[in-house]
Specification:
The structure is a single chain. The protein is an alpha/beta fold. It has a single domain, classed as Class I glutamine amidotransferase (GATase) domain (Rossmann fold). The chain has seven helices and eleven strands. The strands form two sheets. It has a nine-stranded mixed β-sheet. A two-stranded antiparallel ribbon has the order 5-8. Helix 1 packs across helix 7 and helix 3 crosses helix 5. The chain is globular.
């Protein structure tokens, strides 16, 4: 049986694409790193893949805001193919800068890109701490529909971002996300309890660490699962029992979707 194919989208400033490719291959995908310019030259190439991953980094230096330039390229050059990709029941994952791209292109929260125009129902703003946050956090899978994690699961992953504070446009948007079971991941402590800083490292509204679309097949999250693929990557692996690399769980679940 042929392996499902994953496309890791990269551009200037992307710096987690190789780690993401490794994670995908470890989970059972045939993964390729593709520059956005190559995809813009032939958008129909996206049809050859089953999984699109937008990795972390600082695309175009985040010069006009995290992920904004890459999001605009997707809006103006790839919207039709992205919508066809979503309609074909395929998976999309955005990690850190990739999550920023997804929100600013319109892939999240509603799972559709409107050609040439992004909605403004949510954003990822500067951390309330006023600084870049580089630490390990705990997360709780909060959605029954998200295909990437079983509900109730508590995992540990590292974060590294300056613009990770999830902010919905208003209370109506937040209520719609809650009603639609789209809050996929919440910042918690090791026991699964919500709290202030540093449990919530960036001040995200409703402690949102990750968001899925209404189908549960599109996920964006600020933490980096590709950076925890071996137990030895956990900073306390020698001092406490680390049973598994939690980042692997997301990629394995994606592979199981195509099993």
């Amino acid at each position: 049986m042929a392996k499902p194919k994953a496309l890791v989208l990269r551009t200037a400033g992307t710096n987690c694409d190789r780690e993401t490719q490794f994670a995908l291959e470890k989970a059972g995908f045939a993964a390729e790193r593709v520059h956005v310019y190559r995809l813009m030259e032939r958008p129909a190439a996206l049809r050859e893949y089953q999984f699109l991953v937008i990795p972390g980094g600082f695309s175009y230096g985040d010069d006009v805001g995290g992920g904004k330039i890459l999001a605009n390229q997707m809006l103006h050059a790839l919207a039709d193919e992205l919508n066809a990709f979503i309609a074909a029941d395929k998976l999309i994952l955005g990690i850190c800068n990739g999550f920023q791209v997804m929100v600013k292109s319109g892939l999240l929260p509603w799972g559709r890109v409107e050609p040439g125009e992004a909605h403004r129902d949510a954003t990822l703003a500067w951390n309330t701490s006023g600084r870049f946050e580089d630490r390990w956090v705990h997360l709780k899978a909060a959605s029954d529909k998200c295909v990437f994690l079983p509900p109730g699961e508590i995992i540990a992953l590292p974060i590294a971002h300056g613009e990770g504070r999830f902010v919905p446009r208003d209370e109506r948007v937040l209520a719609r996300l809650r009603e639609g079971d789209q809050i996929a991941l919440a910042y918690v402590d090791a026991d699964g309890n919500i709290g202030g800083y540093p449990i919530n490292p960036n001040g995200s509204v409703a402690d949102v660490a990750g968001l899925c679309d209404p189908t549960g097949r599109i996920l964006g999250l600020m933490p980096h699962p590709e950076r925890f693929m071996h137990v030895t990557q956990h900073p306390r692996w020698t001092g406490q029992k680390v049973n598994r690399p939690d980042g692997m769980l997301l990629f394995q679940r994606a592979a199981e979707y195509y099993a």
